[in-house]
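Aim 2 progress. For SAM-dependent methyltransferase, the working sequence is reproduced below.
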Amino acid sequence: MKDLMGRAIWDYYYDENPEDLQTETSISELDDLPVSYLFRDYQEMNALEKKALDLSFGKVLDVGSGAGSHSLYLQNERKLEVTALDISPKSIEVCKARGVKNAICEDFLQFSEKNFDTVLLLMNGTGIFQSLEHIDQYLQKLKSLVAENGQIFIDSTDILYMYDQDEDGGVLVPATGYYGELDYYLHYNGESELPMKWLYLDFDTLENAAIANGFKIQKIEQLEDSYLAQLTLK
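Predicted structure tokens for this construct:
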């Protein structure tokens, strides 16, 4: 991993002539992602993020914390105990520089601290699952991290709308595999990361997987084709 996301976050924070990130997927064309988007304050966040932050309580784990904006709001404004977790070394360095008190660079599946009252996976949190094949593994990991009366907030988007329709109104999706399993490409400053697997989930599929793995689940908020779900232990 070249840590291009972390380098972009670092360059933006330290004003080192940052460029926009560029992203694309196996079903979408190249698109610019301004790095400033990762530094939004609460008022600039969307309704799903705000709802998750408003409902957070206790000891919080922010998975895929990026530049640390969610963590900082919960730590500084809500006065909660927050751990920011990201696999990007430079992102975690910036989290610490911005004032996140507990920021850890580690792979999510290797992280072992437990008993979190709230676990956040925001900005298409299901992406970390990579594919349907790995959902059970990640949900069981989440189950091991959350406290008995805790909660997990995770968001995603049903991307069925991105596929073409036939003249009868049917959607033309891949004949093999789930339509939300994509290859994700990230580019920055003339360099490219190796493609990674990224998963967008419709709510029904997430609901079935969550129930099968010992969770109760409810949809908390809907924003066009995106949603925020809350998972709790049965």
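Residues 135-145 form the longest helix (11 residues). This observation will guide construct design in the next reporting period.
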